Amino acid sequence: MIRLERISKTFGSRPALHELSLEIPEGQIFGLLGHNGAGKSTTFGMILGQVHPTGGAAYIRGISVQQHRLRALQGVGAIFETPAFYDYLSGWTNLRIFTAYTRRLPDSELLEAVRFAGLERRIHDPVRVYSHGMRQRLALAQALLPRPDLVLLDEPAEGLDPEGIHEMRHLILRLNREHGMTVLLSSHLLSEVEQVCDRIAILSQGRMIFEGKWTSLIGDALRYRLDADPWEKAAGLIATLPGIALAPDKILTVPPGYDIADLIASLVQAGIKIRALEPRKQSLEEIYLELVGSPTLPDPLP
Amino acid sequence: MPLFLTQLRFELLKMFARKRTYIGFAAFLAMETVILFLLNLSKPKEHLRRLIEQNGYGFDDYYSGATLAVLMLLWTTTLLGSLYLALVAGDLMAKEIEDGTMRMLLCRPISRIRVTLLKYLAALLYTFILIGFIGITALLAGLAYRGYGGLFVIAPEEQIFALIPAGRAIWLYLAAIPLLALSMAAISSLGFLFSCCNMKPAAASIVTLSVIFLDFIFHSIPYFESLKPFFITTHLAAWLHIFEAHPPWPRMIDDYCYLAGLDLTCLILGSAIFLQRDLK
């Protein structure tokens, strides 16, 4: 659905993105992660033809955005981090205005999108009285008009309360599962990405440092949180065991195939009381922080 | 084409749905009232009486609603019109870019050229509506105050001294309004051009006003007499020539061709700048 070929962007002398190549297949929810300034918004801008790349090209359904932007953007909807509207007009008039730039739509189609976004009761109010959550809903409604097959969501849950985040997640999943839309999502909320995305790409300082299923980053090693008494004795014993690593936060990493029962037996035999031993799944956040802070990262762009 | 008209209608809606528009229109009404009041003071009134009577005409025949309307129209557009049009046109693109609504618009399959064309046409229509509003309200105020009569126009800079009989006065006045709007479109065009550049809306308005102001200053300096045909200000007063007994049509056509060239240049240059811009 989306293909980026060695796409680069430099603003003045400041490089923002360096030769990013990416392929997002149809029907997926794809997450774009990265810290502020990593190049996520620039990538979105180049996919939408709003930022001119200094190198490479972006394709939507095989159509070059840079050469045939109008054709490429047919069937594309987008939301930005802080959706902007004509605040002095109603939500409904805003939708009318934005959709008029694509084609004339019947009221029924507008109403359907408004209902999907859950804004039907306030759609005729001026946007200036909308809460941040309502603005995000209006942004979602406009992105769905006319019905797209690709939706780009730049920080859609930014600034929402936990309930709003939950609803937005639910809406994104519905877009994909019920309507078959391909979704490209960027977010700082890693737990959200973890819950909705099929695959992710991580950008750091304008370079892609990972692309694929985030679970593949976990590796085969198993992790446990250990609480034992006396701790110093337990730590000393574990240090003598080959292949087992103990982090200061009491997280044990054991090699694949290792039977944790052997460790328990060793600790008990040494007179150590085991108070807790719980398996730990590494979260995307932990993986992300490890990756972004990893010393093996490529050098920063010049 | 109908979709283009729908889009243009929405561009106008965006302009006319703002409170600022009506505050501006109210300001023009207030300005006209002030001018009408000032013209009714004894000093300016006596000055006009002298000018008319020195040429052998009756003051009461030519100190009419139409005469007052021309004076109100001239001073209101000169003092406030340029400022207001620069503000509105300076906002056109820059405000939408600054607010982020331009990015929202350009997520859609619409070309940037079409967006600039729509915005520019909306600015032109707005200029015509504004000048039409000022012209009609000035005429109504003048007629309400002095009634129907001959039209007296004096513009020393343009060497215009015209006395038009009552029968033609109103028609000539009405014909002058779109001509003035055409002249004022040059200010809107400059505002549009700067609005397409990478600057804030206020900066675009200030730069537009600065260009017009500097142009006026240089135009007024005798040293630059030979360069006068190149100044915008020289051509902005073209509309006044319609009041002459024998309007200099070739000169007026020349003036309006110059202004049309300026408008077109602003549109093309503004569009080219906007096409190259990154929207972030």
What attributes does this structure have?
heterodimer, A: 302 residues, alpha/beta, Rossmann fold, Alpha-Beta Plaits, 2 domains, four-stranded antiparallel sheet, 10 helices, elongated, disordered C terminus, B: 280 residues, mainly alpha, two-stranded antiparallel ribbon, 12 helices, 4% strand
Molecular structure report:
The complex is a heterodimer of chains A (302) and B (280). With 302 residues, chain A is an alpha/beta fold. Chain A has helices at residues 40-47, 69-72, 91-100, 107-117, 132-143, 162-177, 190-196, 231-240, 260-269, 284-292, and strands at 2-11, 14-24, 29-34, 55-60, 63-64, 76-79, 150-154, 182-186, 199-204, 207-212, 222-229, 245-246, 251-254, 273-280. Chain A has two domains: 2-216, P-loop containing nucleotide triphosphate hydrolases (Rossmann fold, 3-Layer(aba) Sandwich); 219-280, Alpha-Beta Plaits (2-Layer Sandwich), CATH 3.30.70. Chain A is built from ten helices and 14 strands. In chain A, strand 9 (199-204) and strand 10 (207-212) form a beta hairpin. Residues 295-302 of chain A have low confidence and may be disordered. By secondary structure, chain B is mainly α. Chain B has one domain. Chain B has twelve helices and two strands. Chain B has helices spanning 2-16, 19-39, 42-54, 59-62, 65-92, 94-99, 101-105, 112-146, 166-196, 201-220, 232-236, 249-276; strands at residues 151-155, 160-164. In chain B, helix 2 (19-39) packs parallel to helix 8.
Give me the secondary-structure topology.
The complex is a heterodimer of chains A (302) and B (280).
Chain A: E1 2-11, E2 14-24, E3 29-34, H1 40-47, E4 55-60, E5 63-64, H2 69-72, E6 76-79, H3 91-100, H4 107-117, H5 132-143, E7 150-154, H6 162-177, E8 182-186, H7 190-196, E9 199-204, E10 207-212, E11 222-229, H8 231-240, E12 245-246, E13 251-254, H9 260-269, E14 273-280, H10 284-292
Parallel strand pairs in A: 3-8, 3-9, 6-7, 7-8
Antiparallel strand pairs in A: 1-2, 1-4, 4-5, 9-10, 11-13, 11-14, 12-13
Chain B: H1 2-16, H2 19-39, H3 42-54, H4 59-62, H5 65-92, H6 94-99, H7 101-105, H8 112-146, E1 151-155, E2 160-164, H9 166-196, H10 201-220, H11 232-236, H12 249-276
Helix pairs in contact in B: 1-8, 2-5, 2-8, 5-8, 5-9, 5-10, 8-9, 8-12, 9-10, 9-12
